[in-house]
Amino acid sequence: MAAQTSIRAQFDGTAATPKKASFLLDVRVIGPLRVRVDGVWLKESDARWPRRRAVELLRVLALGGRRLPRAAAIAALWPRAGMREAQVSLRVTLHALRRALEPNVEGPGRFIDYDGVTLALRGDIGLAVDAHEAERALRSATLARAANLNVEALASYGRAIELLEAVPAEDGDAGWLAPYVRHWRRMFCVALRGNAALSKAAGDLNAATWHVERALVLEPLDEETVGLALEIALAMHDLERARLHFLEYKRRLAADLGTAPSRQLAAKYEAVMQTRAQRRKGELTAHELEILALIGRGIGSKQIGSTLGLSARTVDAHVGRILRKMGVRSRAAAVAAAGGLIEA
Predict the structure, then answer these.
(1) For residues 284 and 323, what is the distance between their CA atoms, to the nearest angstrom?
(2) Are the C-beta atoms of 153 and 198 separated by less than 8 Å?
(3) Rounded CA separation 323/154 (Å)
């Protein structure tokens, strides 16, 4: 109980939802950059950014969260420039960034410290960064879920999803930013998957499906997400969707990584196929089940006809109906789809 009380304290309305008005500088680095200065939003497309590198420098400083060595800033923004040229570019870009944030202020301004060796955004003026906020929301969701505080966990997952909606599908032009983008996509996948799992537990299978399928788009080779997708599809009795999820994952896994699904995921798929076989078996008549059982023993149409007092053509007509009902194209596939649920 004490642990739950401690966790709940994080959701008292102040810790979970910071008061935006307290931040003098609020930087949105996920997706197109936006920055709020003294309550006024500034987009990266605005004319106040005379140099594109000033936008990227603000991203670098916001994501760093600490004092950044000058050499690290240069390596991120001017990886191919000579040192002297890069140092000049950094000074010019830093000046452009300061003027963009505070166009009517001369000198260093309130937001950026630069001592010639390291530079940083000043945290003491009130700094918020959406990437950092998304990480906090995801951590809060993990803690709440571990304490069985599912309502709070869903709220935190929802906040993380809201913040990560703008994650680009591609890594982008800035090479230094690519690892961050991939990290954000993984975070987005975790938040969507967590929401899907909690929605499934609450019986909201439509919401669970919507979230898990978005997660699959982001990380199609994430086995945990694929496994959850199979569970949700099975719970919805949408066995064809589950089958297609697994087969697509298996195909991509072989093509991209040259490997196969784990035994655990294969077992989940087997459960889907067994359920599918049970359902399709129920669609067969007793006569068709008898014919399918004989097919499973390797007996051909002529011999089946002799056994059952039918012509080979009539047996073939029955077999055609069996294949259509089972959703397969061959006798062997029909037997396999039945999953051993016929008498051999």
Answers:
(1) 10
(2) yes
(3) 44
118-121 and 68-69 beta bridge pairing: antiparallel
Query: What's the rounded Cα separation, in Å, for the pair 141 and 157?
Result: 6
pLDDT, tens digit, 9 for 90 and up, residues 258-295: 999 999 998 888 888 777 777 777 778 888 888 888 88
Amino acid at 326: M
- Which domains does the chain possess? 24-125 (1.10.10.10), 130-278 (1.25.40.10), 282-337 (1.10.10.10)
Least Cα distance to 52 among 167, 174, 175 occurs for 174
What one-character DSSP code corresponds to residue 15?
S
| Strands 127-129 vs 25-28: parallel, antiparallel or unpaired | parallel
pLDDT at 14 over 60: no
Radius of gyration of the CA atoms of the chain, in A = 29
Length of the chain: 344
Check: CB of residue 199 under 8 Å from CB of residue 231. no
Residue 140 has pLDDT above 90, yes or no: yes
